[in-house]
Amino acid sequence: AIAALTRRPVFADCAGKGEDRMAAARRSAACEVSAALRISPGQARNRVELAVELVDELSATLAEMRAGRLDGYRGRIIAEETRPLEPVARRNAEATILRKAHRQSGPQLRAAARKVAMSADPTAAEQRHQRARAGRTVTRPCPEPDGMGSMVIRLPAADLLALDTALDGAARGIRAAQPDDPRTLEQLRADVLAELARAGLANGYLGCRSSECHNHRPLATAHGHPATIAVTMPYTTAIGLDEMPAELAGYGPITAATARRIGADVTWRRLLTDPATGALLDYGRTTYVPPRDLADHVIARDRSCRFVTCTWPSRSCDLDHTNPYPSGPTAAHNLAALHRGHHNAKTRRLWSLRQPDPGRFVWTSATGHVYDVGPEAIGPLLDDGPGPPGPDPADEDPPPF
Fold it and tell me: Using alpha carbons only, what angle is made at residue 367 by residues 361 and 372, rounded to the nearest 5 degrees?
């Protein structure tokens, strides 16, 4: 069904100048799948790519799945491990892999499929490495319970080992210099990496600061501000009168004590919120000229990309005019924080966007589906509203009970 969706003409017609129509159709269909299934844009893109591969290139694998001899997990493994091969070599490798696939666990199937794919075309094995190298990345933070989070680092093996060796050496150096330090080696490795990032935020450079240094990496600004982390908490929490949770931009809720630790060495800005809805009413405007204040207001109000399922931090988003300028004003009620991909989807008219109230957005997809994205609650709510209605006396049984 997803593969069929990518063939809808409305998606193929959204290609930009010089862009492959099929690639554009898949990207656009992924936005629809993301919104309809309420899954992340990345998950939707992966589902679309896998669906098209199974239907168009791995029909034997799809047939095994339809017959119940393979599940979706194993089908995805076969698709991933044969992806670098040319079509004919891929079909031959698929036939070889399927002979034993139904008797193998996931890890066993992956190892076997990788070996078959490498043997099918040794040149493709090197191409696999080069393609993987082009996909090196450090993922965005993934929130985890108890105020923790994780990031995935994907690097070529030599670079990854260089990072591992450097962290290990620094951690062991601390242990040698401070034998009474109670931290474990794993904790020291993590702290060394965090200290490197904090030092960069403090001085505006990652690595050494000298312009003659090979690792001279100045940090870019965003909407006129240096790279920063932002935490939002009620004033009463900041001064210790209560323990209401705070909000760490790009992560989510954190404990009051954690927020106060973060806030101990930051510059504070005032946010005025509606106590009934938690919506942002005003951003303190005592520091910056109006254009930057306006950007600050929208970034603080939206918190993340305003697409239906996107969680990209607003500070890294485009500030898009809901109604194009100059017919639409440069004002808070006509601006939205949008991730570049969703901004482009709107610009290419695959999606239309309205902002009936400041901070509330209504998206309409190319297929006519409508999604309402309400404003984020930033301040604490003083009253959650009336509770659920009680039983209607008219519905009670008459006496005797």
Answer: 20
Q: Reduced to 3 states, what is the DSSP secondary structure of residue 227?
A: coil
The pair of structure tokens assigned to 273 is 């919120």
Rounded distance between C-alpha atoms, residue 265 and residue 337, angstroms: 28
Cα atoms in the Cβ-side hemisphere of radius 13 Å centred on 269: 16
Helix axes 59-66, 41-56, angle to 10 degrees: 100
Helix axis angle for 59-66 and 72-82, nearest 10°, is 170
**Euclidean distance between CA atoms 179 and 57, whole angstroms:** 59
Q: What is the pLDDT of residues 272-282, one digit of tens each?
A: 555 556 665 54
- In angstroms, the CA 23 to CA 36 distance is 20
- Using DSSP's 3-state secondary structure scheme, residue 211 falls into coil
Sheet holding 352-357, edge to edge: 352-357, 360-364, 370-373
Q: Are 362 and 371 in contact (CB under 8 A)?
A: yes
Q: What separation in angstroms does the CA of 227 have from each of 203, 216, 354?
A: 10, 16, 30
- Residue pair 153/138 in contact (Cβ under 8 Å)? The answer is yes
Per-residue tokens: 359: 């901070």
Distances (CA, A) of 132 to 31, 84, 124, 129, 277: 25, 10, 12, 5, 47
With DSSP H G I counted as helix, E B as strand and the rest as coil, what are the percentages for the chain, rounded to 5? Answer: 45, 15, 40
pTM of the predicted structure, to 2 decimals: 0.49
pLDDT mean over 312-336? 85
- From CA 297, how far away is CA 275, in angstroms rounded? 18
Q: Write the DSSP assignment of 355-384 as a string of letters.
A: EEETTEEEEE-TTS-EEEEPPPP-SPPS--
Q: CA-to-CA distance for 395 and 194, rounded, in angstroms?
A: 61
Please check the confidence at residue 113 and state whether its pLDDT lies above 50. Answer: yes
Contacts of 152 (CB under 8 A, 6+ apart): 137, 138, 139, 142
Asked whether the beta carbons of 123 and 147 are under 8 A apart, the reply is no
Structure token digits, residue 110: 């992956």
Per the structure block, which two tokens stand in for 107? 């890890």
Strands (E), 67-165: 137-138, 142-144, 148-150, 153-154
pLDDT exceeds cutoff 90 at 158 = no
